[in-house]
Specification:
171 residues; alpha+beta; Aminopeptidase; acyltransferase activity, transferring groups other than amino-acyl groups; GNAT_dom; GNAT superfamily N-acetyltransferase; Acyl_CoA_acyltransferase
Length: 171
């Protein structure tokens, strides 16, 4: 199986299909793809937002967005890259695609943003499956938490080099 990230143009986000989540999981991942697209179009710095499809053998199984610079949320450390709207389709979950997508995001950061040393994210404290994935991949609590749209959010961070060491044979 070939797992890849495909960088999208902002206008392509609106047409993303094939990612099936139940309503609650979709809410935890930031809403529908149409909602994500609308928010992205309203951002003052869309060029600092990088939307990606997660594909397996050219079929869409997921989505994630990386943000940098002035597009970082207030809870992210300057110089880091933040992860948003991460989702793997319900039928594709539990097969290692989420882990692979995070490793591929680290590769993209290392190649395209070598000055960024960490990948940072926030996750709802009730999202136990996402927390397990992130912790298994080496993400650790930054000690920061805040009240999010759907409840308490925990901020996690992992060094890009740590993700590369753990999941890429020859970084």
């Amino acid at each position: 199986m070939k797992i890849a990230l495909k960088l999208l143009q902002i206008d392509e986000v609106a047409s993303v299909t094939g990612i099936e989540l139940d309503e609650h999981d979709e809410d935890l991942a930031g809403g529908s793809m149409a909602t994500i697209y609308r928010r992205l179009r309203r951002r003052p710095e869309p060029s600092l937002c990088h939307p990606f499809l997660v594909t397996v053998d050219c079929a869409t199984v997921g989505f994630l967005m990386l943000r940098e610079g002035s597009a970082l949320p207030y809870w992210a450390n300057p110089g880091s890259i933040s992860l948003h709207n991460f989702r793997i389709s319900r039928k594709a979950q539990g097969r290692g695609f989420g882990t692979a997508a995070l490793a591929l995001a680290a590769v993209w950061i290392a190649v395209h943003r070598p000055g960024s040393s960490a990948l940072t994210l926030s996750v709802n404290e009730e999202n136990s499956s996402a927390l397990r994935l992130y912790r298994r991949c080496g993400f650790q609590s930054s000690g920061c938490s805040f009240a999010g749209r759907l409840g308490a959010e925990i901020v996690l961070s992992c060094g890009v080099s740590e993700l590369l060491k753990k999941y890429v044979a020859d970084p």
